[in-house]
Design a protein that fits this description.
The chain is mainly alpha-helical. The protein is built from 28 helices and no strands. It has helices at 3-7, 28-41, 58-82, 86-99, 104-116, 120-133, 139-155, 159-172, 177-189, 193-206, 210-222, 226-239, 244-269, 273-286, 291-303, 307-319, 329-332, 336-363, 367-380, 385-397, 401-414, 420-440, 443-456, 461-473, 477-490, 497-504, 510-515, 517-536. Helix 4 packs antiparallel against helix 5. The longest helix has 28 residues, at 336-363. The radius of gyration is 50 Å and the shape is rod-shaped.
């Protein structure tokens, strides 16, 4: 066999030498020696054996002796390989390589013997020497040895060492998918998930496959990156709809989301809102397009007074369409009515959130901000009287009494007659408007406004005091005296009573005025007004 053909075929390692032709006159041992010599040194070199004529040169004779001995050792190594005596084969071939260190095939044969002994490090060393002598000829075989070494280390749990072996295999044979995948497995098994994720992402960018995407999805799950996990699973199913592993993993995520949601409901019923919020967050990480979960979390945020987060979730609930929500069994059964009810509930909760947020701002004297929030609430829902009442309170605190009056009147139309919540507010705002008119000199308008305040709330003494003073400005002494009597009946200790009494009832005491016939008549009128208002109101409210 020609030496060039032998070195270009490193996989053919067990067949070292040639079989002598039948009918040859030379002995079998002599034939093997000659064949081995030809394999090692090629047919272009004359190798002398015993019985042949030797050249006269001593240097040539020494060379031939070395070649002859190398051939003997090589032949012995080949025979040992055939008898599965790999240690002896490695030793014999080592002797041959020592005599002829320039022969790359000797190192390759020795590497194969070490490989049979699972001595991967020695095999690698021999193949490296062979590659040095003949660059590129043994790269594939050396990569395979690295791969076997890495596989054995991986089976023993030595993932870092296995990773190094697989990486070297990939370097020797770039583009080999199996070597790269084994490197990824070792990185993941060694706990180096971030490095594995980076390497895997580069691989997917070059050539995405469903298996690689599922692998990365598992890594994302291990790193608690659920959005990335779900994205990879969807991409994997888009590439391979029948990928069972992706479907199973996706189903596991959905089941885990359902369980987290169920536990969150239980925690909410027990008043453990923070724990419930944590569980809902887990459920949403597993199913980021589920409208019910956003609605649930928005309600929890509202109850925890995190109104900004609540608004964000409730708006998200209404913006998510039915097509964007993930398909599952319960959603497939969901009809149009159920979908509409989710949106209606989200809208109602959003209104409540705006209102609660406005109340918080109101309590902190942020009246302008509270008004804006109530405007948003009324944009969503115009049928809640409480929103008008609250916005009217904000306007009142800002001195916008006409706007406050308009909101209170709107609420009055929507609520039960003489509802105390509206009636008392209307009394206050009419009193404020009347006081403003009084200051401006519009005494008749002020008197009318004070009368409306008294009609809505006839038991507040201060209103009678104000109207009495207004009647004095209008020169209505009778009306002024009657309101003063009402003031003395309701609040006889009022500090304004003595000067007003001296002005309108000179020389009389409070008891004399109240017990007079006029005082008794005014008392009856006052009590009737209070009684009529009380009977027309809802006692429970």
């Amino acid at each position: 066999m020609d030496s060039t053909e032998e070195t270009n075929n490193p996989q053919q390692t067990a067949e070292l030498g040639s079989v002598p032709p039948a009918g040859c006159e030379e002995s079998r041992d002599e034939t093997r020696r000659k064949g081995a010599a030809k394999q090692l040194f090629g047919s272009g070199t004359k190798v002398l054996f015993p019985g042949e004529k030797r050249p006269e040169s001593e240097d040539l004779q020494a060379n031939l002796i070395i070649q002859n001995q190398a051939a003997k050792h090589y032949t012995a190594g080949k025979e040992a390989m055939g008898k599965f005596q790999y240690e002896r084969a490695a030793l014999c071939i080592y002797k041959a390589a020592t005599l002829q260190p320039e022969q790359s095939q000797l190192y390759a044969s020795q590497a194969e013997a070490f490989l049979q002994l699972c001595d991967f490090q020695s095999a690698v060393s021999c193949y490296k020497q062979a590659s040095f002598l003949e660059p590129g000829a043994f790269s594939a075989r050396l990569a395979f040895v690295y791969f076997l070494q890495g596989q054995c280390l991986c089976d023993r749990g030595l993932f870092s060492e296995a990773l190094q072996a697989f990486s070297q295999a990939a370097e020797m044979k770039p583009g080999s998918r199996i070597y790269e995948l084994r490197s990824l497995v070792c990185l993941a098994a060694a706990g180096r998930h971030a490095d594995c994720l980076k390497l895997l992402t580069d691989r997917i960018t070059q050539s995405p496959t469903a298996d690689l995407l599922v692998f990365r999805a598992r890594l994302h799950k291990q790193l608690n990156q659920m959005s990335g996990c779900l994205g990879d699973l969807k991409s994997a199913l888009a590439l391979s709809p029948a990928n069972q592993e992706a479907r199973v993993l996706l189903l596991q995520l959905r089941e885990a989301s359902k369980e987290a949601r169920h536990q969150a409901v239980n925690r909410t019923l027990c008043g453990q809102l923070q724990e419930a919020l944590c569980l809902v967050n887990i459920a949403l990480e597993l199913r980021p397009q589920h409208r019910r979960l956003y609605l649930f979390r928005g309600i929890l945020f509202r109850r925890l007074k995190d109104f900004t987060a609540a608004v964000k979730d409730l708006v998200q609930t209404m913006e998510l369409s039915e097509e964007e929500e993930e398909e599952e069994e319960e959603e497939e059964e969901e009809g149009k009515d159920e979908s509409d009810s989710i949106k209606e509930e989200a809208q109602f909760q959003l209104v409540l959130t705006y209102n609660d947020f406005a109340v918080q701002c109101f309590n902190r004297a942020l009246y302008a901000e509270a008004t804006l929030l109530l405007n948003k609430a009324l944009e969503e829902e115009k049928g809640l009287a409480g929103l008008y009442l609250n916005r009217g309170d904000c306007f009142f605190k800002q001195g916008d009494w006409l706007y406050a009056l308009a909101d209170y009147q709107q609420a009055e139309e929507m609520m039960r007659p003489n509802d105390p919540a509206v009636r008392l507010r209307l009394a206050v705002v009419h009193n404020a408007l009347a006081s403003s008119c009084f200051q401006d000199g519009c005494f008749q308008v002020a008197a009318d406004m004070f009368s409306l305040a008294i009609r809505y709330n006839p038991i507040t003494a201060h209103y009678y005091e104000n109207r009495s003073k207004t009647h004095r400005k209008l020169l209505d002494l009778r009306g002024a005296r009657e309101d003063l009597i009402r003031l003395m009946i309701l609040d006889p200790t009022n500090e304004e009573v003595p000067p007003m009494l001296m002005s309108m009832f000179p020389g009389c005491s409070v008891s004399e005025v109240v017990s007079s016939p006029k005082g008794r008549a005014v008392r009856v009128q006052l009590m009737d007004a209070i009684q009529n208002l009380s009977s027309s109101s809802d006692p429970q409210r």
